[in-house]
Amino acid sequence: MTRKIAPYPGAAGGWDALASSFRHVREQGIVGRGARTLLRANQPDGFDCPGCAWPDRNPQSSFEFCENGVKAVAAEATRRRATREFFATHTVSELSRWDDYSLEAEGRLVEPMAYDPADDKYHPIRWDEAFSRIAVALKTLDHPDQALFYTSGRTSNEAAFLYQLFVREFGTNNLPDCSNLCHEASGLAMTEQIGVGKGTVTLADFEKAEAIFVFGQNPGTNHPRMLGELRSAARRGCRIVVFNPLRERGLERFADPKHPLELAGGSTPIASHYYPLRIGGDLAAVKGMLKRLLERDALDHEFVARHTQGFDALREDLLAEDWSLLEAESGLSRAQMEEAADVYAGSGATIVCWAMGITQHRHAVATIQMLVNLLLAGGNFGKPGAGACPVRGHSNVQGDRTMGIDEKPSPEFLDRLGEAFGFAPPRQPGHDVVGAIGAMARGECRVLFAMGGNFAAATPDTAFTARALRQCEMTVHVSTKLNRSHLVHGRQALILPCLGRTELDAQAAGPQAVTVEDSMSMVHLSRGTNPPASEHLLSEPAIVARLAEATLPASRTPWRWLVEDYDRIRDRIAEVIDGFEDFNARVRTPGGFRLPNAAARCQWNVPGERARFVVHPVPRTAAPGAGLMTLMTIRSHDQYNTTVYGLDDRYRGVSGERRVCFISAADLARLGLAAGQWVDIVSVWHDGEREATRFLLVEHAIPPGCLAAYYPETNGLVPLDHHAERARTPASKSIPVRLRPTRDLGAALSP
Ligand SMILES: Nc1nc2c(c(=O)[nH]1)N[C@H]1C(S)=C(S)[C@@H](COP(=O)(O)OP(=O)(O)OC[C@H]3O[C@@H](n4cnc5c(=O)[nH]c(N)nc54)[C@H](O)[C@@H]3O)O[C@H]1N2
Ligand SMILES: Nc1nc2c(c(=O)[nH]1)N[C@H]1C(S)=C(S)[C@@H](COP(=O)(O)OP(=O)(O)OC[C@H]3O[C@@H](n4cnc5c(=O)[nH]c(N)nc54)[C@H](O)[C@@H]3O)O[C@H]1N2
Ligand SMILES: [Mo]
Prior knowledge:
By secondary structure, the chain is α/β, with parallel strands linked by helices. Helices cover 36% and strands 18% of the residues.
């Protein structure tokens, strides 16, 4: 692959998106007539795209092409296999030196594997033997709290429900999950203010909004189907207001491959207003907007009086706020903040969207609460076209939480679970991801079981986390592909290969469907249709059931019986979890059903029964320290979290290289550096420095003092205790760093 850096001239989408998806499909060895069926995501009676949590339009009425959806499905449907012969020829030490792209490229895992320290290799193991080894490891712990059970966000509702049940029957609430790394701050912030931790809008609201604000999100790469909604909105005159340090092409203009004129080179402008603010400057920017609304008296007084509490304190705080501080911290001018506020004031119905550019900061909770303040001040709840839209990442990360994958479950939930299954659930809160790493490092947790994901690569402080993982008695990963977490392992290590979302899941009662919940609380069926990658794969629910039988012989739960027919699992979910009454019938209606959302109806389940305005001071982050800059770690266009599909980031003009660091022209000049030069990135923290070596400087339109590089290569720079206040989401979008020219240039120049 040749390295090339050149600005991308086109709109997002268009012909290049089609061409890229064809290329990725071909690279996975999927050719010929079968390709269409293998790749048919989001079809009625088909599988839910494992790409992202953005909801589907009614698939009967339209076809939505999504380049990154195709890549995600093709990656699962790949013809490549990581066989026992592969594992026999490579030691783990050798594989540890491979990059993430090469590990992924080995293809699907086909049978359970166990690590043998004698030859430093993974060897095939029978499923029964694997389960009994795990059961022994779990049962010999002094206390169930010494085990950790991680979940990534692809796990279905059915698997998640059984999994958390097993974990709680085993005796712990140690259920860290990828939400802890993702939208944890959104849930916490919103629950305190409006009584629900989920978005309040549906796709229908996107049709009626007069303004859509997009904070800290790159949908052109991470939620491509959202661009279709933004495109339609823009075309009917809806204002689209973007706050992002980077000029993300998908938010500037989009060419929908479905429309012939746009495929032929035309495109639709998306953002009507684009504010390239400083990294971490959102809270200040939104305060500036609120201050302007107050000064113009452009608030929804009736809504504020009827539905809210705490406004007076916010007003006092805003009036006392100093414009020069707001300008310095947001990196925007007063005129820009006022302009954005005027767009907001001129809109009769506004949606505010946000993602990782907001949640992965120290002051994430405060920033989200300021966004909700903004919505409340304009009366943007409880009416069509308005509301809060935290855009979730993994395709079922929201559903997993709903099912009880939660290290801090509510007492009511535990009561109902215990009653339905006849046991006494543990009451002690468990570890989140950051807590789990600390607990492993201290030797307090000794077994890590992971339902999907890539714990070693997705988490912060890579070197520290690796030492923590290596201290475990046992690490177990339920996975579809080989990844870093299989190589950074405990004394014993197992890989349990499972069916993917796209694959036929045959159980005793016949082929099964699972359910998922999207970012807008729609619950619907997903039925895999592709032939499984190997005959030895088990479904995630089956893995949980067999693990439970091996570990908890006295359990009263009929594990195997439940898994014979997933309708039985759904009946038990309906018994325990609100909103799932008559689950099996309702989920079979086309498109599924929407879970109730009290805040969307202006019912405020908070003390005082009115939505709460919350006051927060402007965080001082503009100067992270003498000589320091702020680094955000973001996704390239060719990756799915830690899964690297390719080395291109098309819209940002990068091909053939992932070790790049985006920097402004002003900073290059100030630091005496040049684009094309190799640098090391050094993060500076109270406990010392961390470094990531050999990044190619790429000049980019980014505010001075701000840098961007890809995750997971930069996770080693994120200190474990550098996380959101209260929510503990690693602050991987605001790492204080400095740059240093790479010394060993020889190593830098050979790829
Ligand atoms: N193809 C693909 N799809 C995905 C994923 C994937 O990796 N690949 N991952 C999935 C998951 S789990 C998630 S959570 C989502 C992630 O979706 P995003 O949140 O869009 O992902 P990031 O790449 O982390 O992008 C963060 C965006 O926030 C901006 N940003 C960073 N810091 C700030 C800030 O301080 N303020 C503002 N206003 N903006 C900021 C960055 O410039 C970037 O545009 O996508 C999901 N979908
Ligand atoms: N620096 C930095 N770090 C970050 C982020 C960031 O923006 N910057 N983002 C954070 C976010 S938002 C998230 S959500 C996390 C993601 O963290 P994780 O969810 O832990 O990581 P993924 O990369 O999504 O997991 C990929 C692996 O999942 C397995 N897999 C894929 N499909 C399935 C399936 O159907 N079942 C099972 N059992 N396994 C499957 C495959 O083996 C694959 O290797 O990373 C976080 N880490
Ligand atoms: Mo995420």
